[in-house]
Amino acid sequence: MKWVKRFLIILLLTLIVITVIILLNGHHLYQSVISEISLSDKIKEIKEDENYVSLNDVPDYYKNAIIAVEDHRYYEHGAIDIISIGRAIISNLQAGKLNEGGSTISQQVAKNLYFITEDDVVSRKIAEIFMAFDLEKNYSKDDILEFYMNTIYFGEGYYGIKEAANGYYQKDPKDLTLYEATMLAGVPNAPSVYAPTVNPDLAKSRQGKVIRSMIEYGYLSQEEADKIMQ
Question: I need a surface site. Which of 76, 133, 195, 223 has the fewest CB within 10 A?
């Protein structure tokens, strides 16, 4: 039995060392990008873009669609959502593959701002968490949601909701219909797959997921949803 105890101790110590190394690598990546351009300067930079749109200039149902499908507990948790992470781990283990992530909107903003080209997935994920805490510390939830809709990629070379609304529907975000808003809310999950001009059937299927999420979390009635899908 002694060898079993020793083995377990060695295994535990190994896991601790690996975890520490992962955290240190992620923190180093976080520090390196912050040293190049601070978060406040990065935010200032994106807000100066001519296509930047205020949260007040998009329909409420677009904002609700984003929250419902991407992070339905957004206003309840902080930089990370332990419940969502736990659910994603269980789901992925059951499926035997990576079907679902547990990233919050704040983590996605962190990725869009600093880590979109980073290849080291593990270090990037840790760095995103550190950056998400910075975002939550310095900006309101509405601010972060605004950053999200202005930095996400919608396929076809469109970054941000203004380019997407202009490109796909030839209109400004404030003029999007409920149908168009729910369609666009689903695209960033996989732009190369769900862009309406690339694969209309899959885009429609993803829109259905958005609408079902909005019903589930109280943003739409079944009657309203039926009208959209017609």
Answer: 223
Q: Which domains does the chain have, with CATH numbers?
A: 2-229 (1.10.3810.10)
Global pTM reads 0.89
Burial code (b: 16+ CB inside 10 Å, e: under 16) for 122-141 equals ebbbbbbbbbbbbbbeebeb
Euclidean distance between CA atoms 165 and 160, whole angstroms: 9
CB 154, CB 186: distance < 8 Å: no
Render pLDDT for 13-64 as a digit per residue (tens, 0 to 9).
Answer: 889 889 889 999 999 999 999 999 999 999 999 999 999 999 999 999 999 9
Q: Are 79 and 72 in contact (CB under 8 A)?
A: no
